[in-house]
Write a structure and sequence with these properties.
By secondary structure, the protein is of the alpha/beta class. It is built from eight helices and nine strands. The strands form three sheets. Strands 2-1-6-5-7 form a five-stranded parallel sheet, with helices on both faces. It has a two-stranded antiparallel sheet with strand order 3-4.
């Protein structure tokens, strides 16, 4: 999978792309990331990428001409190398909330382009140049880079072979069943008076499986009843 990232701060991705399973996916060839700054397409002596809003108001708005030039340059490079055009994703608090089904859909895309904003956000006309808009949640950050990293991390770990143990992505919270994961324990067997449920140490796999299923349902009902409603609605 290739991920093109449009960002004014490519250096924010340095450690992220070298660490843990994302780093291994990069060196293993399952993930290729290209970072490109709109600054390279900025205007004038100062390489400006933003301007004041029409109609007045606070802050600066990212220019559509500069952003699209940067996005199109990534597509042109891909085309020159015979690689697929990326699906363009605008990162914005006004987008569809990111969730596991979207991560699963992205994980099978041959190429994604994640467009990160800064300042007061984008000139509205950029929306005509993207395929979809994604939000990390109902809060506002200063830039789209952390959202881009979240999208990369959630999608790449679903690519077959990227994680050592494929079962872990099927059994965890928000996986195919749409529920929260059951409680997990490891050593020590007793910590400050808290013990591990007996069923987990008994060695009966059918009982363990039934307990985990019941716990998963109970936990989802208690913490996220909305997920059960979504599941019933299909
Ligand atoms: C300060 S925000 C702009 C917010 C914009 N003025 C608004 O009210 O919708 C600057 C940039 O950070 C990114 N950003 C902030 N919050 C985000 C979120 N919840 N999800 C995805 N990107 C976000 C976007 O790329 C956005 O263009």
């Amino acid at each position: 999978m290739r991920v093109d990232v449009v960002t004014l701060f490519p250096e924010l991705f340095d450690t992220f792309l070298k660490t843990s399973f994302v780093g291994r996916a990069m060196t293993g060839g399952q993930l290729e990331v290209r970072l490109r700054s709109p600054r390279d397409f900025g205007l004038g002596k100062h390489k400006s990428v933003d301007d004041t809003p029409y109609g007045g108001g606070s802050g600066m708005v990212m220019r559509v001409d500069v952003m699209v030039a940067c996005m199109e340059s990534l597509d042109a490079d891909a085309e020159a190398e015979g690689k697929p055009r990326a699906r363009r994703v605008l990162l914005t608090p006004q987008g569809q909330p990111f969730a596991q089904p979207i991560a699963a859909r992205f994980s099978v895309e041959p190429a994604l382009m994640l467009v990160c904003g800064r300042y007061e956000g984008f000139d509205e006309r950029i929306r005509g140049f993207v395929d979809e808009e994604i939000s990390l949640g109902d809060f506002v950050m200063t830039g789209g880079e952390i959202a881009a990293m979240a999208v990369i991390e959630a999608a790449v770990r679903l690519i077959p072979g990227v994680l050592g143990n494929a079962a872990s992505t099927h059994e965890e919270s928000h996986a195919e069943g749409g529920m929260l994961e059951y409680p997990q324990y490891t050593r020590p067997a007793e910590f400050r008076g808290q013990t591990v449920p007996e069923v987990l140490t008994g060695g009966n796999h059918a009982h363990i499986e039934a307990w985990r299923k019941a716990q998963s349902e109970e936990r989802t009902r208690a913490r996220r009843p909305d997920l059960l409603v979504d599941k019933e609605r299909g």
